[in-house]
Write a structure and sequence with these properties.
The complex is a heterodimer of chains A (315) and B (237). Chain A has 315 residues and is mainly alpha-helical. Chain A is 71% helix and 6% strand. Chain A has helices at residues 12-37, 39-77, 90-101, 114-121, 127-133, 153-160, 178-218, 220-228, 233-269, 271-277, 283-312, and strands at residues 79-83, 106-112, 142-147. With 237 residues, chain B is an alpha/beta fold. The chains are: A mainly alpha (315), B alpha/beta (237).
């Protein structure tokens, strides 16, 4: 009698569960245990990476603020305030307005009254005290001229400074070379920041490489036994990479939290003045910077481990 | 029957020094052979070639059909899972119990082996080496002989076709050495080829198994089982 061949259903889900459990044990649990066991040798790497990531975060946020500041300065430098003489007639002012408005180099012209100038000054540090000290409103009316190209500002200034409507003592807000000076200072700060971060990065990577090398050295017998019983390469190397990622992740988390906390403290201390010194740095930007610092930490830790493994662990 | 181990014109040099010179060797399934010779004769080098810890300078090394001589580093674990290894210094992981040490060898080779299955098979292997009741002991809680038996259990738990042992009795007293040799005999009887590098003359002469003699890197003598004679020369090596 012919029988039926019965094949048992392959317990795929259970198999996946077993494989996942084993992978978790060999990679993550082993790495976590070893990380805790080697904490004393990992501490210098943890410290230097935290410092690096913290400073990188602060410098990164400062750089972001500087870029925004440069944009603001650029925009302000191409905005020429043409100050109107108090005794100027409306005909003279209108004539000047017409000349400016029809000039193809100029984007827009806006008339600011003395009252508006006073109101604007209240938001600029130092100027409210001048206004309070004076008997009358010391701020002149002005034609605010938005020049299309920053390089034309000097020519516009020369064109208007002897006009009948213009204040002869302080004709315009034009300051020759001021914008270039600001740019030079910002560029210098950016270069110094990058050099500092590069140096600190070198130190952090070197310290991390040494700490992973020490971990490999202290576990060389264990590694040799794992290799001898046929452990695949990922199983031998993986825990070291994850240990590095744990170190970098913790350093990144700590640094990210401090960066976020510092920004929040700055915003809480005075949102107006903070926005002037660090334009564009908001809570969202700070949170993004913290996440970036954390991610960089994980990458730095695991990357350093990989480099160290390549150098010091024989296959 | 195809050989488990085939060495064809194998040479291995360390710098200018030739550790193995034109060695030809074949080992059949279920065969137990001793590898003897004076210190520096090339015994350990030969075992390392079989386990692909090193590559030959010339020649071919075949292990269970795998070309060890040309094997990529990423494929070495595949070969190692076919070769059980026993060392003089046991090489057990001190932080794991005897059972965990044995189970580890199973699970690193096959992630589909569950904890329960690995544990059961590890206890079976420990039972087979007479240590079924010491599975929960850590290596430092075991004697040298017991540790070596745990190492044997670890080496055979995945039922590899080949077992190599480098001076396995080097740290054992005579009684433990004989027990270990009985164990190797039983393993060979189940079809696993066993190659043992040793200096122990008494064991080699009394067991009357195949003896391969290396001198200065050359395989100078290959005596079949039962025809090993007195091997008096070994006593002077």
């Amino acid at each position: 009698m012919a029988g039926n061949v019965v094949t048992a259903r392959f317990p795929r889900r259970r198999m996946i569960q077993i494989v996942a459990t084993n992978v978790f044990r060999f990679l993550f649990r082993g790495a976590a245990r070893n990380w805790i066991r080697n904490l004393s040798s990992t501490a210098p790497a943890l410290g230097s990476m935290t410092l690096l990531l913290l400073l990188s975060g602060v410098i990164g946020l400062s750089g972001f603020a500087l870029v925004n500041l440069e944009r603001v300065e650029s925009s302000q430098a191409s905005l020429l305030h043409v100050y109107i003489r108090d005794s100027a007639t409306s005909t003279d002012v209108d004539a000047l307005w017409d000349r400016l408005a029809t000039d193809p180099r100029i984007g827009s012209v806006y008339y600011t009254t003395k009252a508006e100038a006073l109101q604007r000054a209240q938001h600029i540090p130092g100027l409210p005290q001048i206004a309070d000290a004076a008997d009358s409103n010391p701020f002149p009316a002005s034609l605010d001229v938005q020049v299309k190209n920053i390089n034309d500002v000097a020519a516009i200034d020369a064109m208007v400074r002897n006009d009948l409507a213009v204040d002869p003592v302080s004709p315009t807000s034009y300051d020759r070379g001021a914008y270039q000076r600001i740019q030079a200072v910002l560029f210098g700060i950016a270069v110094a920041g990058l050099v500092f971060v590069a140096l600190l990065g070198f130190v952090a990577v070197t310290v991390t490489l040494h700490s992973i090398r020490a971990a490999i050295h202290s576990r060389r017998d264990e590694v040799a036994i794992m290799q001898l019983v046929g452990a695949p390469r990922w199983m031998v190397r993986g825990p070291f990479v994850i240990e590095g990622a744990i170190t970098g992740g913790l350093a990144g988390a700590a640094a990210g939290l401090v960066v976020f906390g510092l920004t929040m403290a700055g915003i809480a201390a005075g949102s107006d003045s903070f926005a002037q010194f660090a334009p564009g740095v908001t809570v969202t930007v700070a949170a993004f910077a913290a996440i970036l610092v954390f991610t960089a930490g994980v990458g730095l830790g695991s990357g350093s481990s990989l480099v160290s493994l390549r150098r010091h662990l024989e296959s | 029957m195809p050989s488990i181990v085939d060495l064809i014109a194998v040479s291995r040099a360390y710098g200018p020094r030739l550790a193995l010179d034109d060695v030809h060797l074949a080992l059949e399934p279920g065969e137990l052979a001793f590898l003897v010779g004076p210190s520096g004769a090339g015994k350990t080098t030969l075992l390392k070639l079989i386990n692909r810890e090193i590559r030959p300078t010339n020649g071919e090394v075949w292990v269970d059909g795998i070309a060890a001589h040309s094997l990529k580093a990423s494929r070495v674990p595949d070969l190692r899972r076919r070769v059980g290894v026993v060392f003089q210094d046991y090489k057990l992981l001190p932080r794991l119990t005897a059972r965990e040490n044995v189970a580890l060898a199973l699970q690193v080779g096959d992630l589909r082996v569950s904890d329960h299955e690995a544990s059961e098979r590890a206890i079976d292997a420990l039972d087979a080496v007479g240590l079924g009741d010491r599975g929960a002991s850590f290596p430092h809680q075991l004697s040298g002989g017991q540790q070596q038996r745990v190492a044997v259990a670890r080496a055979v738990v995945a039922q590899p076709p080949l077992l190599i042992a480098d001076e396995p009795t080097g740290n054992l007293d005579l009684e433990n050495s004989w027990e270990l040799m009985d164990l190797f005999g039983d393993i060979a009887a189940f079809g696993t080829a066993v190659l043992i590098a040793t200096h122990n003359v008494e064991i080699v002469t009394r067991l009357q198994r195949r003896v391969l003699t290396l001198v200065a890197g050359r395989l100078v003598r290959d005596q079949p089982a039962g025809k090993t004679g007195r091997l008096a020369w070994l006593a002077t090596s």
